[in-house]
Specification:
332 residues, mainly beta, 4-stranded antiparallel β-sheet, 31 strands, 0% helix, 48% strand, globular
Length: 332
């Protein structure tokens, strides 16, 4: 597989195989997009004909799957059965919004996707529920799936929070310039990155604390929301939504933090680069102590993830993706 995503609750896994090369004239033995259970049992596939998919995102319980297509610029919403529910057609002329997957609300009834300066909200009946436009092209966007709030940043360094109707709830000025932002928890707290300092905001947008470091982790829509890893000179600090440091991991020797994935159980994964090309994934317990470790493929760290309860782990291996249990034993 070239792409993997899992629902935050761990009920569904979606994989995409690599795109067909022009030098290869045969046919693939598997479908391009497939759905799996947490135990790696196949559920079905998404019919893609000749279209090329680029990204996907599962709703929290895995009932809905949003798929972004490179060919034709389509975004489609499916039931995990699967059955197509709605289709949007974004136009990426002014920004790199195509790099960010479509976002789905917790109840699976709304899909949010970016379209240059515009944010569009599409309901599962195919009707466009809302659309709003910013003065500056969008740089990043994140959806708080339970509260239905959209946190976006633009290329001038400003940040805004809108609800699903497009109403502006709060805005941050572009001084200092905001390079990125993501939600923390489910009470409206969020993190903004301005140059190096990571600033923790409460639900009213007030800065409650800051750390001199940058965020480390997967795309905000694929991350465990109740903690964030910040890379500082003192090590990797795992912080609560209010900025409280829960635990700290100090890299050993020449280790370079590359990616962090947390879970509600406290078990987490930390990918660390060592030497020129070696990457080691360490599985840590709730106290930050190592439970087990494994060497992974360097270019595959973006597919590394852990289920919400910490009982399942996906790691990139040389023969493909590996599904392991919480103790590190390979399942599939």
């Amino acid at each position: 597989p070239d792409f993997l995503c899992a629902s935050p609750e761990g009920d569904r896994i979606c994989t995409m195989r690599s795109r067909q090369s022009m030098r290869y004239g045969g046919d693939f033995a598997t479908h391009a997009i497939r759905l799996w259970t947490p135990r790696a049992q196949p559920l079905g596939h998404i019919a893609s004909t000749e279209a090329v998919s680029s990204t996907a995102c599962l709703s929290p319980h895995g009932r809905h799957l949003a798929v972004g297509w490179h060919t034709g610029g389509l975004v489609t919403l499916h039931e995990s059965a699967p059955q197509e529910l709605a289709t949007g057609v974004p136009r990426w002329r002014e920004s790199n919004a195509f790099r960010y997957p479509p976002m789905v609300t917790a109840d699976g009834t709304k899909m949010v996707y970016l379209d240059g300066r515009r944010v569009r909200v599409l309901a599962d009946d195919g009707v466009e529920a809302a659309r709003y436009e910013l003065d500056v092209p969008i740089r990043t966007a994140a959806l708080e799936p339970t509260r239905g709030l959209i946190l976006s940043t633009d290329f001038k360094g400003a940040a805004q929070i809108h609800d699903l109707s497009g109403t502006l709830i709060h805005s941050l000025p572009a001084s200092p310039a905001v390079a990125g932002a993501r939600w923390l928890g489910h009470e409206g707290a969020f993190l903004s990155i301005a140059s190096k300092p990571g600033r923790f905001h409460d639900a009213q947008g007030k800065v409650v604390t800051s750390l001199n470091g940058g965020g480390l982790g997967p795309h905000p829509q694929q991350a465990y929301a109740n903690e964030i890893a910040i890379v500082t000179r003192d090590g990797v600090k795992i912080c609560a939504p209010d900025g409280t440091v829960i635990r700290t991991y100090t890299p050993q020797g020449d280790e370079r933090p590359m990616r962090y994935c947390g879970s509600a159980s406290g078990r987490s994964l930390l990918a660390l680069g060592t030497g020129m090309v070696k990457v080691v994934c360490r599985c840590l317990d709730a106290e930050g102590d190592e439970e087990w470790s494994a060497t992974v493929v360097p270019l595959g760290t973006m597919t590394m993830c852990i289920s919400r309860d910490g009982s399942r782990v996906v790691l990139p291996g040389r023969g493909g993706l590996q599904l392991r249990d919480g103790s590190g034993v390979e399942i599939a």
